Amino acid sequence: MEFYKFNKDIGKKISKYNSDFIMSRIIQTNKTTNIGTMYLDKNGIVGYHHAAVPQLLLILNGEGYVRNEKDEYFKVESGDAVFWEKDEWHETKTEIGLTGIVIESEELTPALFMPLKK
């Protein structure tokens, strides 16, 4: 399990074409990629399971806790990204609610675009 940041602070200001915004790059793939939004309500949980393919969870809002095989929970919040390798066991839970984007693909290398969370 690895933790990354994709918040505004690590983004790049874009001004081309009279634009005015900040872009935080996340991932690039050449293989089939599944992307979905995950909504966990208060006390929601994604039960303990193995990742069928590499998975990247981007926390958009709320906060929660994640773990892998070690049974130690780590707090995650808006702007955090959690990466699990293929076959890695993991779980996500929240007390207050959490919304995230899940990216699944055989070809995920988040370290190419995002810095590790310190």
UniProtKB/TrEMBL annotation:
What SUPFAM superfamilies does this protein's entry cite? RmlC-like cupins
Q: In terms of domain of life, where is this protein from? A: Bacteria
Question: What species is this protein from?
Answer: Oceanobacillus zhaokaii
Q: What is this protein called?
A: Cupin
